């Protein structure tokens, strides 16, 4: 017998509603670009997240297929698919968290900035939808170049009169995830025990790991510092080259995106002491946006932490990072302003 989709969906939504009313945490999450290389594993991991009651999967291709597939998983979240621009508003209405991995990824030889011309327009359109349909949602922006797409999103929200800097977060978690892994390798530790703050931005030299602040406390030789900093800054390129034209990091990125989204949801729920690195509006440096540790709470990034003490190597790195970041941020702002 063909399943009665309408009945299945309405009873599933009733269940989700019930859970929400019963006080159990149940957040509504949309993924824009859900059929992509990042989007699909990200959607699967969010379908497994117990904090999610409703999962909206939006893409310009293949959203119904991905949704049908995921909807058979016997987890709590209800998955609903939305295909193409005419369904963007339904996808966004009522969402608590919107995760955006829509856009083209790098091929070998490309920088993240080479993606600007295509992805800037995609991010603008999607953020216009957010401003209209769920202006209070937390936005996790993954689409590259993050150093420019976050300023683009901020300008779109300012124009719409909905901008709240606490709710707009550029996802840099993959840099932290990589840093934890590579540092653990050098120290001979379990990566789960290691925490490396990574600040600045999300491209090349703007990715600044603070190896002097690694937990547990440890020291590195100058050679180790040089090796680790380079490997963390070029981790994305390592994957792009290994995939040889088939795209950039998707699986580790989906893992990182879920780690970050889950932290945002725990913050929304009111958990205390949720701290992650993210690229946000910031007064830590003279730049309008900068990635540092932030504390996530009911209203988003409620506190932006200072850099803490840097060593000489990190101070030199910071100067380089700020120079490139300033240009990328300006490029994003001008894209909307002109
Ligand atoms: P992909 O090409 O596999 O998937 C992108 C998806 O976006 C596709 O399904 C496509 O149909 C969809 N899409 C295109 N235009 C759209 C629109 N207007 N509305 C909704 N969906 C649209 O690319 P992949 O590998 O998933 O990467 C996505 C983005 O994430 C890229 O910009 C990539 O550079 C970025 N990225 C960011 C990272 C980070 O750390 N922040 C790490 C890795 C990738």
What would you say this structure looks like, in words?
- The chain has 338 residues and is an alpha/beta fold.
- Helix content is 46%, strand content 17%.
- The chain is built from 11 helices and 11 strands.
- It has helices at residues 5-21, 39-47, 63-71, 88-92, 116-133, 146-160, 173-187, 222-233, 235-243, 251-269, 312-337, and strands at 27-32, 52-59, 78-83, 97-100, 138-141, 168-170, 198-200, 207-209, 274-281, 289-297, 300-304.
- It has a 6-stranded parallel beta sheet, with helices on both faces.
- Strand 4 (97-100), helix 5 (116-133) and strand 5 (138-141) form a beta-alpha-beta unit.
- Helix 5 (116-133) packs parallel to helix 6.
- The longest helix is centred in the last third of the chain and has 26 residues, at 312-337.
- The radius of gyration is 20 Å and the shape is globular.
- The mean pLDDT is 94.
- The structure holds 1,4-dihydronicotinamide adenine dinucleotide.
- 1,4-dihydronicotinamide adenine dinucleotide binds at residues 32-33, 35-39, 59-61, 101-106, 115, 119, 122, 125-126, 142-144, 146, 171, 174, 202, 247-250, 253.
- Keywords: NAD, Oxidoreductase, Tricarboxylic acid cycle.
- It catalyses: (S)-malate + NAD(+) = oxaloacetate + NADH + H(+).
- Substrate binds at residues 106, 112, 144, 178.
């Amino acid at each position: 017998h063909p399943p009665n989709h309408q009945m299945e969906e309405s009873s599933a939504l009733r269940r989700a509603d019930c859970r929400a009313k019963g006080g159990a945490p149940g957040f509504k999450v949309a993924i824009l670009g859900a059929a992509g290389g990042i989007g699909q594993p990200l959607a699967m991991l969010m379908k497994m997240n117990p904090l999610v009651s409703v999962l909206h999967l939006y893409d310009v291709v293949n959203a119904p297929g991905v949704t049908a597939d995921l909807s058979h998983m016997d987890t709590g979240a209800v998955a609903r698919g939305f295909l193409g621009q005419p369904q963007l508003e339904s996808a966004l209405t009522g969402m608590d968290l919107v995760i955006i991995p829509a856009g083209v990824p790098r091929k070998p030889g490309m920088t993240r900035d080479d993606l600007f011309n295509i992805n800037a327009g995609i991010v603008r359109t999607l953020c216009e939808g957010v401003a209209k349909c769920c202006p209070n949602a937390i936005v996790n922006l993954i689409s590259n170049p993050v150093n420019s797409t976050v300023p683009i999103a901020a300008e779109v929200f300012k124009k719409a009169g909905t901008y709240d800097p606490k709710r707009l977060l550029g996802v840099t978690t993959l840099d932290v995830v990589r840093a934890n892994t590579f540092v653990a390798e050098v120290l001979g530790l379990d990566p789960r025990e290691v925490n490396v703050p990574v600040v600045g931005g999300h491209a090349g030299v703007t990715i600044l790991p603070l190896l002097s602040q690694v937990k547990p406390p440890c020291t590195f030789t100058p050679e180790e510092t040089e090796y680790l900093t380079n490997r963390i800054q070029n981790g994305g390129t390592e994957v792009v080259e290994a995939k040889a034209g088939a795209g950039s990091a998707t699986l580790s990125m989906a893992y990182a995106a879920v780690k970050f989204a889950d932290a945002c949801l725990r913050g929304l729920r009111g958990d205390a002491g949720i701290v992650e690195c993210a690229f946000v509006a910031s007064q830590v440096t003279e730049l309008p946006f900068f990635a540092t540790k932030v504390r996530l709470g009911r209203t988003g990034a409620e506190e932006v932490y200072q850099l803490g003490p840097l060593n000489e190597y990190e101070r030199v790195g910071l100067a380089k990072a700020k120079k490139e970041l300033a240009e990328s941020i300006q490029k994003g702002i001008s894209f909307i302003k002109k």
